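Follow-up to my post from last week.
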Amino acid sequence: MIKKEMIAMLLAGGQGSRLGVLTAKVAKPAVAFGGKYRIIDFPLSNCINSGVDTVGVLTQYQPLRLNTHIGIGIPWDLDRNIGGVSVLPPYEKSKDTEWYTGTANAIYQNIEYMDSFNPDYVLILSGDHIYKMDYEVMLDYHKEKGAEVTLAAMPVPLEEAKRFGILITDEDRKINDFEEKPENPRSNLASMGIYIFNWKTLKEALIANASQPSLDFGKHVIPYCHGNGAPCYAYEFNGYWKDVGTLNSYWEANMELIDIVPEFNLYEEYWKIYTKSDVLPPQYISADSEIEKCIIGEGSQIYGKVYNSVIGCGVTIGEGTVVRDSIIMNHAEIGAGCELNKAIIAEQVQIGDNVKLGVGEEVENETDPHIYNHGLVAIGEKSVVPSNVSVGKNSVVSGITAAEDYPDNYLPSGKTLVKAGDKA
Amino acid sequence: MRAIGIILAGGNNHRMKELSQKRAIAAMPIAGSYRSIDFALSNMTNSRIQRVGVFTQYNARSLNEHLSSSKWWDFGRKQGGLSVFTPTVTNENSSWYRGTADAIYQNLDFLKESHEPYVVIASGDCVYKMDYNKVLEYHIAKKADITVVCKDMPAGENVDRYGILRMNEESRIQDFEEKPIVANSNTISCGIYVIRRRQLIELIEKTAEEGQFDFVKDILIRYKNLKRIYGYKMQDYWKNIATVEDYFNANMDFLKPDIRDYFFRQYPDIYSKVDDLPPAKYNVGAKIRNSLISSGSIINGVVEDSVIFKDVFVGNNCTIKNSIILNDVYIGDNTYIENCIVESHDTIRANSYHKGEGDIKIVVEKNDRFVI
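User reply:
Got it. Predicted complex:
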């Protein structure tokens, strides 16, 4: 008989629209992070490091990159005879076929998958946070408390609490009440979107609420369980946890990795983060280059000067180019004599010679000021930027652009330039 | 594919000096992220050879660890796969491998139980890319019994540690000498052979009956007039790393853009075991000039014209020049290293000074890494 004590379900179907052009072609969990990783590597590595060897990954939005990245799970040692990693896209049924309409709806549509492992507990994760957590310790807590639902939660500054789902607990951490993004929070304990359910409790709740449109854990399933008297507990987590849901928080989290001893340390032997490495060779740093406060991925070739930046794998940075405070993802090519400031360059972008990014005044972005702010410049995946142009702050470029798209060779701050096409 | 592969990863020699103590040459780290045997293994998988046997007996721990999973070279297949053959005690035999032919003889079942008609034999201590199918096609076209891959070395280069051969106009090998004092040709054998599997079994059995053990001396050289042995000239980059000097130069070759481009960026790729290391990190004070740096390393000092392997820590105010730092080395603050090869897992105390004068110095320093 197949039996797993706890299996994980990883929600990776969302677009993550607040990352703007970075998620135009890939789902948020597949976005590159920290030089060589992708965001989903963190929950997946946590799973295997915690002894959870059965993980269902729910995909929906732009899944190609995720599928190729996960494969059969070799990098995370999740290629198993029984269990391992399974990618679970929405599928057609004899009636009532639908997309995944909400977080819990996605789990509901995969009851059969979970049942096949005969689990006692189900761990619900989301694919958009950077953290290291031992889910086994959380499970011990769950059992010790006699809980049916345990929510991982972390204390946040009270003024930020209104951005989160807030848990109100007694002194034993038993949950009395929930508040979703409250104006006047009664507690500073924010839910991290990590739940452990007793499988029986979860299954019953999913079936009972099946007809609820956009069935959601925070809005429907957990309140339903709580309302039915299932003991719900908060598991307090005090380690590093970062939501990289916005362009600026994504940029910040990357920059934090550069500190001498970063709060989130990738260099510890214990609790390794695994990823699919498709580039192996060492990186080459030329005789005329300068590098300070950077992390750089495999196979990159640096001929320019790079300061305070996170560079992915297989990146080329041309001679005389100066890169500051920027993120450059895998296989991007930056020409010679460029100047990059606070730029986020997505994968396989091609930038010509003498290009200046992030120059000029701070001006609010014309189309999406809530996405492109803090003076960042974002260049979408496989975009082409011609030589000899400048791009201002809070701006975004995507697609194959040519010199005529830049009047006077200049795209002013706050502009959005979206063209068709991908770099071949 | 029509061939199986044999990789001779047997030994080590005094020419590697202190570097030989820990491992077979085939397991020597090279080019920052690889081990020497990766080149032969990757060439085999890229030539679609699916069944490969690696023969080794010299301190095989490093090598076994590297080969602990065959998946990195895509050999984890139901058809074929990767086997490592170390000497074993049996009823009939209790000796070490007494030579390359003996190594194959002691594991002759590997050959007998295969069904592919040809065998590609390669050694694990050379750096090159090659499609063995080209050699095989040549072998068939020439109706050869054995084909030896060879290379013309630049005139004046010392070739006395290689097998030296001379061919006639048809490329049939006329002369073959192993490590001659005075070489009469600058064409050397690259240690890569193609031979029909049944032919190999026959030759190996006969050689064993006669109490002889070496593939080159007792088969190639003895049979060169009887069998049709042909040479296949290789034009591309090829380097044997079996001396300290060659090992050092082979690593330094990867600082040249054309060689880097050939191995790292052009199809096909060279594969290696994935170590799950974070990206390399450069802190304040890092100054890098013309160097290769591998993942997992943390650099706080000056590195010039050097190859830094994986998981290396370079402390504050250090200077490393024209050197090779192997895997997992810790270098304490204010250390100066020039013209050296620093052995893997070394811990070098702060304020050390190492400089190779004339020759390359091999630094082996095993100190406690963390003083509590």
